[in-house]
Amino acid sequence: MRRGAKSGLVVLAAVLGLAASSCGNGVIDKSTDGVPPAEATGTLRVLIPSFPPSTKGRAAFEKVVEDFHQTYPKMKVEPDFATYSTLNEKMSTSIAAGIPYDVMVTGVGWIQPFASKRIFADLAPYGVTPQVIEEKSIGALVPAATYDGKLYAYPLVADARAAALRISAFKDAGLDPDKPPKSLDELKAAAEKLTVKNAKGTITRSGFDMAAATSFRQTYTTLLASTGTNLYVDGQPNYSNEKGLETLNLLKSMANHVQPYGQQNAAQQPLVLTGEAAMGIVGGAVDCSDKGIGKKNCDDLKFFRFDSGKEVEFVGGDLASIGSRSRHKEAAWSFIQSLTKPSSLDAIAKLNKKLPAYKDAANSPQAKSNPLSKFVAEGLPLAIYEGGSANWLEMRANFDSQLTQAVLGQKDPAKVLANLAGQSR
Amino acid sequence: MSATLERTAPAVTPRRLTPAKDSRKLIRGQVRAGWLFLSPALLHSAVFIVIPVIAAVVLSFTDYSFGDSWAWVGFGNYVDLFKDQDFRAALVNTILYAVVVIPVSMALSLAVAIGLNQKIKGLGFFRTAFYIPTVTATVAVATIWLWIYNPSSGLANGFLSLFGFAPGRWLSDPNTALPSLMLVGIWQGLGTKIIIYLAALQGVSRDLLESASLDGASRWQKFAHVTWPALGPVQFFVLVTSIVGTFQVFDLVYVMTKGGPGTETTVLVLDIYQNAFQALRLGFASAETVIMMLLIAIFIGLGRLLQKADVND
């Protein structure tokens, strides 16, 4: 080999070696597990969609960091204020790059898939068991945070949904607002009565807002659970059956009959809050001040839960986990302890208009701040959640597209459910 | 001091270089310089193109899903792909999108470029106006079109109502969702193509056009026999970039429909993204990427064949 080519190769090898060493060693710290907290040094990487990257959000996060620093004064905390839409990209790329996060805050549907991939660590070594969550947090979220009998996440806040009706619309339609529809049949009958159409047959006020402008998944899960049928039982699909089909057919019968498919307003607010629908699914909070929908609008609302045999409330939420490949697992647990102090949970709840996931959430400042939060806080013991299978992240998208195809009449609902069940196994 | 620095030149027999050797030495030097200048681009291509392509091909034969373990699955992902209805829908939608958007946008761009190549008033304004969509961020473009297509308060239905038409549901109607996206894609892609065509039109030989005029050729004959053949290489360039662009459409679909309703507007890159980063099936998504690369190669090959046939004619 000529001298020029040789020296070129040496330079190239040096450059690649430098790049490899900076990727391999420069970012990952030495493990601090077993090191006394006061002496531990390094960077704790936290992926957290619970704090908006605004001034208020950052200030609230800093308070958590200050609390953590009382135990780990020398550890640096590096937050990544992701959103739920970018959460998977952040987690997957960090894993692929070999620099996974130490603390990961995700949603209900994430825990089991990531636990099955051994990306989250079992919390038992830190004394966190399902019994602890039952005692201190929202017991209904225990199944969502458990995989293979082990607990992998600690709830931070609950994102609950309810249904609401407009009292005036009910009275106009000759319905009793004090007797909201409970069963699927009652819901359909009331929605049809409440739908207002113009002379051309175009819907001008929806009878029931299915909150499904882009996906029927959560509405389907809620209505199905209200018949006493959970989406999954012991990780196995439980919807390709009579109840599952009945629920899907109900949605199909309402799409474009009581609500135009894809309907949403510019602010993407629940349509019943703005009067664009007479009844519909709502989130976990309502702003009754003049900055929000106003007192008059608020007074016209009545909240209820679906009960077609079993009263249920759909609940999502933010849950904190420790990365299984973290080199600072003890510090990560300490950070989660700071994160789950009532003051931190109240701050997260206020920032996100969700409920703090502590035992007495019904008496939290957030629950007392508006009637809808109070209503959903009282319903937390009735919580049901979506997911339940290890491949839920994959199934979520399948549910989104295939339920829509069934609702819009492009595919046979029974075949869709059978197909989804096949993909779930 | 100086004596130590001075060296006596060794007595060498002067070599007589032949002209052939001289030129070979020169060529070798040029080749070396060429490689030296190419090396940054080659290194960049190796790191950001060659290695990822190889990685995608290798991953496509595995079931890697960001977990602790993975296994070779051979052609399993490819077999699963063709059984996957979302992939099939994405494949069909992408090809449909390309087949409609590419010829329509090329024809429109050429027509507009010919118009802008004339001596008309406000030429600068029109050129700027047609180019603005290209330099505007796709997310901004998509957001504006979301408002235009809004069924209850959008401009599109407002315009239709002037003529007594019933309001359309555009993006939420399975029948109109993909065509609505195609319209935005065509509109957004015009600017770049217009600029390229405009430059090419200005390079068409004036002498040939003048000769054709002197021979009594009509406008159409001049276009068909002088301008069109002169645009050949540019047509191929625009075709190739359009094929790559339309096959890689993502942001527009992601912001406007997320692939819905159902899978009516799911395209390949969106499906790859969803499989890789939402469902975390990186092996499966890599197989899909390999298929997409092959598809782009096939389409470019077809374009090349068409181009050759056109030249031979």
Task: Give me the secondary-structure topology.
The complex is a heterodimer of chains A (425) and B (313).
Chain A: H1 3-24, E1 42-47, H2 55-69, E2 75-80, H3 87-96, E3 103-107, H4 111-116, H5 130-136, H6 142-145, E4 146-147, E5 150-151, E6 154-160, E7 162-166, H7 167-172, H8 184-194, E8 196-197, E9 203-205, H9 217-225, E10 232-233, E11 236-237, H10 242-254, H11 271-274, E12 279-282, H12 295-299, E13 301-304, E14 313-322, H13 329-339, H14 342-352, E15 355-356, H15 365-369, H16 371-378, E16 383-384, H17 392-407, H18 413-424
Parallel strand pairs in A: 1-2, 1-3, 14-16
Antiparallel strand pairs in A: 3-14, 4-5, 6-14, 6-15, 7-12, 7-13, 8-9, 10-11
Helix pairs in contact in A: 2-13, 2-14, 8-10, 17-18
Chain B: H1 2-5, H2 19-59, H3 76-83, H4 85-116, H5 123-135, H6 138-148, H7 155-162, H8 177-202, H9 206-214, H10 219-230, H11 232-247, H12 251-256, H13 268-278, H14 282-312
Helix pairs in contact in B: 2-14, 3-14, 4-8, 4-11, 4-13, 5-8, 8-11, 9-10, 11-14, 13-14
Question: Can you put this structure into words, describing what you see?
Answer:
The complex is a heterodimer of chains A (425) and B (313). In chain A, 41% of the residues lie in helices and 15% in strands. By secondary structure, chain A is α+β, with helices and mostly antiparallel strands. Chain A has two domains: 185 residues, D-Maltodextrin-Binding Protein, domain 2, CATH 3.40.190; 175 residues, D-Maltodextrin-Binding Protein, domain 2 (3-Layer(aba) Sandwich), CATH 3.40.190.10. In chain A, the strands form five sheets. In chain A, strands 1, 2, 3, 6, 14, 15 and 16 form a seven-stranded mixed beta sheet that branches. In chain A, strand 8 and strand 9 form a beta hairpin. Chain A is globular. With 313 residues, chain B is mainly α. Chain B folds into two domains: 41 residues; 237 residues, MetI-like (MetI-like fold, Orthogonal Bundle). Chain B contains 14 helices and no strands. Chain B starts with a helix and ends with a helix. At the A-B interface, helix 3 and helix 17 of A face helix 13 of B.
